[in-house]
Design goal:
heterodimer, A: alpha/beta, 7-stranded mixed β-sheet, 10 helices, B: 352 residues, alpha/beta, Quinone Oxidoreductase, Chain A, domain 1, globular
């Protein structure tokens, strides 16, 4: 097969193939990007294994990948914010910019959002990709391409902690120590949280959580949320000011609510069942607010500043590396639940 | 020969001319509007009398005036989805870039690449036919006429000011200056649930009008030192205001607001006084009275239209004191300037 623009295309559920595609051309306001690093997200894996996520259904072949960094290779008409050779992180969702959601600063809720690797829009797991220039963020020289790709999940944590109102001195409960739980630990600490307690089923995940800054870890061993709640309260000395639920598991949601102080906030990051049993009266009468998040908004600059300043170190999150040609192997490893963040390097290696 | 598009063009200070300009060609995201009523603003007057405004905006080339406008859509660009021909719209005059950080954060009024009607060098809408991006033309419901549509712009200023000040149910609000902007702030504060509004001015006629239109207390502060005037306000109202909205353009009122406002409250500066005024900043700081500037508005047009259409501003049109056809724009401006005419809001009808 030729390799002009080797691309990872999901044809339908369980049918992921490497295809060669033409190199796209940047339109006005866009740039052509030579892709460098693309991380795999749970959603990419889910589209592959299920063909849909909720109402987003794969109806036509779609390129996967949305956690990415690249080098600017060509400028579309009118682009002045970037130049050829600039190293950038790509914010994957381009909104319409002119609807009311966009105008009030909540463009993540734009109904015409074009998001990489959410059907029907292609992602960027390829050699080359075109994107709107104003959603590409120039990386300082000392920030690596892998770190650039990690700005995407880190932005999820910036948005979650923003919505939670994490501030100086808070105690924060993070439920779930997968990659998203881990970036939330890093971000909560970067925002001055005093103590972070992390729960998970898996002891080795909790070890990583500890390494990345968790003050306390609680391994979930009982189906009864109240058992976990007691362990959390023993560790923290009290309920938490804020809980960030990153597992999507119904018992964990119950734990998060019961373990949060009255007047606190529980942020739902993890996505599980559409309908769950939830102690809504307990939350209500204690004014524990429950707030969802959808991706992130105006978070890339903050995430970049956190990494560029050295306040946050995301490098330990990358545990597996593959080349673009090996994408299917990479996805298989992801499907098996191996490691934390799997990174795919898209640069065509010179012979 | 080009279709006539009569427009009120300011060539230089005090040199306002009625001219035929070309009918603008619309882009795929624009609409062409047959202009109806356009209100005159203090800034239009300032450009006419001085050739500049707010210290930083300077007229350097001929510019069509007017930015408080409404009209009817007569043509739509190929990508326009929110409007159709025949829709009546209130025109939000400021078009930001929508791509910079401040736009994306929702405060597009502060966009450094803002293109604002009748702020040099961008042409305004005192014209027969006007082109504008559809995303900044707000459809008026059936119950809201074009004249109300023209009042949406200054109403948006008042909404933004009240938002910045944090006016809410139970607030006591002090409005300094009983001109159109002050009156609008008074009404918006009441819509937001303010328990009362005190209005100050140095003109008894304006104060009488404010009282008639809903002010709970009016005080003439001509010649009264600020701390004493503050006391008069607090005595009249029975407590100190939570929010002061300064709409007079006087440094005096900024100082008055700082003295009168309750600790923890806000003074919102809508009016423009001197560039570097002498005000009791230390007093404001020790009372934690926040001083908040206002620059136009962002995301206020939908609120303005919904306040009008829900009947919460029944007296809105009483602001309108004079009408002139487009050809008499200069007379309209002279009337606005003349204190004797007792003008509040002057409307120029661009389809007459």
């Amino acid at each position: 097969m030729t390799d002009i623009n080797l691309t990872a295309v999901l044809f339908e559920q369980n049918d992921l193939r490497m295809e060669d595609c033409p190199i796209p051309s940047p339109g006005p306001g866009q740039v052509l990007l030579e892709m460098k690093e693309v991380g795999i997200c749970g959603s990419d894996v889910h589209y592959w294994t299920h063909g849909r996520i909720g109402d987003f259904v794969l109806n036509a072949p779609m390129v996967l990948g949305h956690e990415a960094s690249a080098v600017v290779s060509k400028l579309g008409e009118g682009v002045t914010s970037l130049k050829i050779g600039d190293r950038v992180a790509i914010e994957p969702g381009v909104p319409c910019r002119k609807c009311n959601y966009c105008k009030i600063g909540r463009y993540n809720l734009c109904l015409d959002m074009k998001f990489c690797a959410t059907p029907p829009y292609d992602g960027n797991l390829a050699r080359f990709y075109v994107h709107d220039a104003d959603f590409c963020f120039k990386l300082p020289d000392h920030v690596s391409f892998e770190e650039g790709a990690l700005l995407e999940p880190l932005s999820v944590a910036v948005h979650a902690t923003n919505r939670a109102g994490v501030k100086l001195g808070n105690t924060v409960l993070v439920c779930g120590a997968g990659p998203i739980g881990l970036v939330n630990i890093l971000t909560a600490k970067a925002k001055g949280a005093a103590f972070v307690c992390v729960t998970d089923l898996d002891a080795s995940r909790l070890d990583m959580a500890k390494k990345l800054g968790a003050d306390f870890t609680v391994q979930v061993t009982s189906r009864d949320p109240l058992v976990t709640v007691q362990a959390i309260e023993e560790a923290l000395g009290d309920k938490a000011d804020i809980a960030i639920e990153c597992s999507g598991a119904a018992p964990s949601l119950k734990t998060a609510i019961y373990a949060t102080k009255s007047g606190g906030v529980v942020v739902l990051v993890g996505l599980g069942q559409e309908m769950v049993e939830m102690p809504v009266v307990n939350a209500g009468v204690r004014e524990v607010d429950i707030r969802g998040i959808f991706r992130y908004v105006n978070c890339y600059p903050t995430a970049l500043a956190m990494i560029a300043s050295g306040k946050v170190n995301v490098k330990p999150l990358v545990t597996h590396r593959f080349k673009l040609e090996e994408s299917i192997k990479a996805f298989e490893a992801a499907k098996r639940g191996e490691g934390i963040k799997i990174m795919i390097s898209c640069e065509r290696k010179k012979l | 020969m080009a279709v006539k598009n009569l427009s009120a063009v300011l060539h230089a200070k005090l040199d306002l001319r009625l001219e035929n300009r070309d009918v603008p060609a619309i882009g795929e995201e624009d609409v062409l509007i047959r202009m109806g009523p356009v209100g005159i603003c203090g800034s239009d007057i300032k450009y006419w009398t001085h050739g500049y405004c707010s210290g930083v905006f300077v007229l350097r080339a001929p510019m069509v005036l007017g930015h408080e406008g409404a009209g009817t859509v007569v043509q739509t660009g190929s990508k326009v989805g929110n409007l159709k021909v025949g829709d009546r719209v209130a025109i939000e005059p400021g078009v930001p870039c929508l791509r910079c950080r401040i736009c994306r954060e929702g405060r597009y009024n502060l966009c450094p690449r803002m293109q604002f009607c009748a702020t040099p060098p961008v042409h305004g809408n005192l014209t027969r036919l006007f082109k504008h991006p559809a995303a900044f033309c707000h459809r008026l419901p059936e119950s809201v006429d074009l004249e109300h549509g023209a009042l949406v712009e200054p109403l948006a200023v008042a909404i933004h000011a009240c938002n910045r000040g944090g006016v809410k149910a139970g607030s006591l609000v002090l409005v300094c200056g009983a001109g159109p902007v002050g009156l609008l702030c008074m009404w918006v504060a009441k819509c937001a649930g303010a328990l009362g509004v005190v209005v100050t001015d140095i003109d008894d006629q304006r104060l009488a009008f404010a009282k008639e239109k809903g002010a709970d207390y009016v005080i003439n502060v001509r010649g009264v030192e600020e701390p004493i005037a503050a006391q008069q306000i607090i005595s009249a109202a029975g407590c100190s205001p939570d929010v002061t909205i300064e709409c007079s353009g006087s440094d005096y009122s900024m100082t008055l607001g700082i003295h009168a406002t309750h600790p923890g409250g806000s003074v919102v500066q809508v009016g423009r006084g001197t560039q570097i005024p002498s005000i009791p900043l230390t007093l404001a700081a020790t009372k934690e009275v926040d001083i908040k500037g206002v620059f136009r508005y962002a995301n206020c047009y939908p609120t303005a239209i919904s306040l009008i259409s829900s009947g919460q501003l029944p007296g809105l049109k009483s602001l309108i004191s004079h009408h002139f056809p487009l050809a008499e724009t200069e007379m309209a401006f002279k009337t606005a300037l003349s204190r004797d005419a007792g003008a509040i809001k002057i409307i120029i009808e661009c389809d007459q």
